[in-house]
């Protein structure tokens, strides 16, 4: 009997059979009327999910790309960013932000540990931050 493991990391992660079956379907051209209709429906569903009337975007890429998009589209050089880092991905946020000239403050913890909420609350009172990553 094959044992299915629960892998709780950014990826790769287990995929349920129903999704695997869908991934095995024939590829549809992006101009196909059925695809266009489905994609428009997806965008409308995302607007409802995020409770926005603004534009939503579906972008295929890595987690790093999503992190950089988040930094690039919400902050500018000179802004203050608090990064709560628990390791590799928190450190990646530091690198991305510093390369864009963003003022970075970091609260970190050893692998498997947490940054206590009280430390985060205290840091947030020290100055105005335009954003925080966790």
Summary, kept brief:
With 134 residues, the chain is an alpha/beta fold. It is built from 5 helices and 3 strands; from the N terminus they run αααβαβαβ. It has a domain at 77-133.
Question: How would you portray this structure in words?
Answer:
It is a single chain. The protein is α/β, with parallel strands linked by helices and 134 residues long. The protein is built from five helices and three strands, in the order H-H-H-E-H-E-H-E. Helix 4 (88-99) links the parallel strand 1 and strand 2 (103-108). The relative contact order is 0.11.
- What is the gyration radius calculated from CA atoms? 20 Å
Ends distance: 38 Å
Class from secondary-structure proportions: alpha/beta
What order do the strands of the largest sheet run in, or round the barrel if closed?
2-1-3
What does the largest sheet look like? Answer: 3 strands, parallel
Q: Which range does the strand content fall in?
A: 5-15%
Low-confidence stretches: none
Q: How many individual β-strands?
A: 3
User: How many H/I helical runs?
Assistant: 5
Query: How confident is the prediction overall: mean pLDDT?
Result: 92
Along the chain, the helix and strand elements come as: HHHEHEHE
Helix content: 40-55%
**Overall geometry:** extended
Entry keywords:
134 residues; alpha/beta; 5 helices; 3 strands; extended
Write the layout of secondary structure elements.
Elements: H1 17-23, H2 33-50, H3 63-74, E1 80-85, H4 88-99, E2 103-108, H5 117-126, E3 131-133
Parallel strand pairs: 1-2, 1-3
Helix pairs in contact: 3-4
